[in-house]
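Appendix B, Record 12. Input sequence as logged:
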Amino acid sequence: MLELRPNCECCDKDLPPEATDARICTFECTFCAGCVESVLGGVCPNCGGNFTARPIRPAAMQKKYPASTKRVLKAEGCGPRKAA
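Logged structural output:
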């Protein structure tokens, strides 16, 4: 079950469950489309993976399976992932 995290890890923009500009990687790192395109270059700074549009959970299912309220924000800021 996807957590549907409530914000962009980079700029802290609110990303409610119905947000069409939410992007996730395979580990559910969550960013807004603006940061993915302009700051991250389409590469997750946490795992190095790519992004896809986050699915929208139907409203009826939100009641039974609510979105996460835990905000995640990169304290060190965000930018392209540094090579190891």
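The radius of gyration is 13 Å.
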